[in-house]
Amino acid sequence: MRVYEEEETLKRRRVDVRRGDREGDNDAPDISVFLPVYNEEPNLRPLHAKMTDALASLGRTAEIIYVDDGSSDASLEVLREIAGRDARVRVIALRRNYGQTAAMSAGIDAARGRVLIPMDADLQNDPADIRRLLEKLDEGYDVVSGWRKNRQDKAVTRKFPSMLANRLISWIGGVPLHDYGCSLKAYRRDSLADVRLYGEMHRFIPIYASWAGARVTEIPVDHHARTMGVSKYGLSRTLKVVFDLVTIKFMASYQTKPIYVFGSFGVLAFAVSFIAGLWALFLKLVHKADFVQTPLPILAIVMFAVAVQFFLMGLLAEMQVRTYHESQSKAIYAVRERIGFEQP
Question: How many degrees, rounded to 5, is the angle at CA 213 between CA 208 and CA 319?
Answer without folding.
Answer: 60
